[in-house]
Amino acid sequence: DHLRIVCMNKGLVLNDVFDRLRGACGVVENVAGKFAHSKDYGYVTSCPTNLGTGMRASVHIALPKLTSNGKDVSVAKKVCKELGLSVRGVGGEHTAAGEGGIVDISPSARLQIQEAEIICALYSGIKQ
Question: What is the reported pLDDT for 1?
């Protein structure tokens, strides 16, 4: 994507992080102009998987029993896929888990859904 705005915080209070993100996007739009948006498809991005909200919400969480030697994420990916979640290493796609089996987990579905649905899917998947 041409622009990436990242908001991070420790803990699982995703609504606070989302509120900060929404505020940051508002500031950028006020300065640079409105983001490209389609009434049918949502925000237009250079990556088709982000079409819609353009938002990817994730948490870094330790899953030591699902990461072989604290690094291999293949078992974690299999378990999380059934919950509608994607798993990445903490360095992004195609990277190993971090120290102690820390992985990045996000909802798999992002295409043409609302921001609130993304946050709810993340909460729900983690809870399970």
Answer: 56
How do residues 14-36 score in pLDDT, each as one tens digit? 889 999 999 999 999 999 888 88
CB atoms within 10 A of CB 80: 23
Q: 126: which residues sit within 8 A by CB, 6+ positions away?
A: 12, 59, 61, 85, 105
Q: Which residues pair with 89 in a beta bridge?
A: 92, 103
Asked whether 11 and 27 are in contact (CB, 8 A), the reply is: no
Integer angstrom CA distances of residue 117 from 8, 65, 122:
19, 28, 9
Pair 95, 88: CB distance under 8 Å? yes
pTM confidence score: 0.81
Low-confidence ranges of the chain (pLDDT < 50): none
C-beta of residue 110 within 8 angstroms of C-beta of residue 50: yes
Pairing of strands 59-62, 85-89: unpaired
